[in-house]
Amino acid sequence: MITAASVLAAEENNPLIPHPYELIVGIFSFAVVLLVVGRILVPRIQQTLNERTDAIEGGLKRAETVQEEAKEALERYQAQLKAGQLEASKLRKKAEDQGAAIIAEMREQAQAEARRIVEAAQAQIEAERQQALASLRSEIGTLSVELAGRVVGESLEDSARQSRVVDRFLEELEGRARSQEQITS
Amino acid sequence: MNALTVLASSGGEEFQAPGPELFNFRPLFDGGPAWLTKPTVFAVFGALVVCVFCWSAFAKPKLVPRGIQNIGEMGYVFVRDQIGKPFLGRDTERWMPLLMSLFFLIWVWNIFAVIPVIQFPIASHIAFPIVLAVAVYFIKVYLGIKNQGPVKYFTNLIPKGLPKPIYILLVPIEYLSTFILAPFTHAVRLFANMFAGHMILAFFSLVGFWFLFEKPTALGFGVGIIGVVMTILMTAFEMFIQFLQAFLFTMLAAMYINSGLHADH
Fold it and tell me: What is the pLDDT of residue B5?
């Protein structure tokens, strides 16, 4: 039984024809979602995601710079250490050289001094010897003359007398020498 | 529920497959306004679900995400990287509000098809896809005229350097497809998928209900079992289609927006 009303009803329910009130509800729903989600919420999460990217990138960059600085510092310290070691070895070598030089110089000085002392001593000994020789030569003459005079003057009667004369003379000589020593000292 | 109403209307002894009457709704209560029907109520409810979910995820976003913000960000990153970036490139961020709104609203509306008690895909009433497609269409044309110039936009659509006779064919086809077929298929693709999906689910669940409860017979038992199994399988398949159609609709929106922003040829 096909009536106008049923045809109309069927047409009304054609699934390809939109209901006007559903269009309005659809617009309303979409507008609400656009406003709340699109306008308010999406910018928030976008900002947060950007901040997170910044934070991560910043953190990585900071770590990188710190690592670079640490590496630089390490290199600097190693260079300094190397320079220090070099300096120290140089100083040690210099000190050794200087020490050796000083020792050699000292030895030379000491040897020179010793030589000088020896020479001076020898010179003094020689001088004293010369002096002794000179005085001896002058004294021996007079002494011999004096002794001869006495020997001749007293006439050599016996051996006892002779020895007494000689002994006396020698004692005199010794006493003279002692008095001479006392004067010189 | 649908099975019962259909059975009541068929009223006969024979099994009758459900038809387009599945998509007719009376006002929620007798004497209520004609616009206060199940689809309109759940369309608004779907919008609220999207708003509440996004609010709980993105209202106070933290640098280190916790709980529901993680899920929301997964959705955001999916829309941005899988839908926005391939078509909009550097313009993606600017159009994310629209893409997010479209994707989540359509998806939630589609999911309603398999939520117990609701069990109705909102987009199977063509008015809703039309609203979304028309909005995208206006944005596309507005952006085209604004970014490429009122004349240039229309001339840019036609590729240059082809033999003259080809233009006799090409020009009408190009304009027809860009300004009439594109928005039409944009809306109808979503509508038809949801419409068909709902019919399939209703059909198999009705088969199961009819042959196992309404008229249980020895012969019909196997058919009823097949109906139940198919209902379960098709529900899983529908859930995939629901996601796919939300994805496709949003992807096409991104593509159309890009065609407005930059000349294709």
Answer: 47
Asked, for residue A130, whether it belongs to a domain, the answer is: yes
Q: Is the pLDDT of residue B215 over 90?
A: no
ipTM of the prediction? 0.89
Dist CA B179 CA B28 (whole Å): 38
* CB-based contact A33 B128, cutoff 8 Å: no
pLDDT of amino acid B265: 52
Name the pTM for this structure: 0.70
Looking at the structure of chain A, the number of domains it has is 1
Residues 60-99 of B with CB under 8 A from A: 60-63, 72-73, 76, 93, 96-98
- Contact at 8 Å (CB) between B22 and B199? yes
CB B41 within 8 A of CB B22: no
Q: What is the DSSP letter of B29?
A: S
> Domain locations in chain B?
2-261
- Residue A11 in domain: no
pLDDT 10s digits, B98-132: 999 999 999 999 999 999 989 999 999 999 999 99
| Residue B131 with chain A: CB contacts under 8 Å | 23, 26-27, 30
Closest chain A C-alpha to B240 CA, distance in angstroms? 23
Give how far B19 is from chain A: nearest CA, Å. 11
B47/A30 touch (CB, cutoff 8 Å), yes or no:
yes
Chain A contacts in chain B segment 210-249 (CB below 8 A): none
| Domain membership flag for residue A151 | no
User: Would you call B40 an interface residue with chain A, using a CB distance cutoff of 8 Å?
Assistant: yes
Residue B131 contacts A, CB cutoff 8 Å: yes
**Domain hosting residue A73, numbered range:** 19-135
Pairwise CB contact (< 8 Å): B55 & A15: no
Percent of chain A with pLDDT over 70: 88
Residue A31 lies in a domain: yes
pLDDT tens digits along B143-196: 999 999 899 888 888 888 888 888 899 999 999 999 999 999 999 999 999 999
Is B130 in contact with A23 (Cβ distance < 8 A)? yes
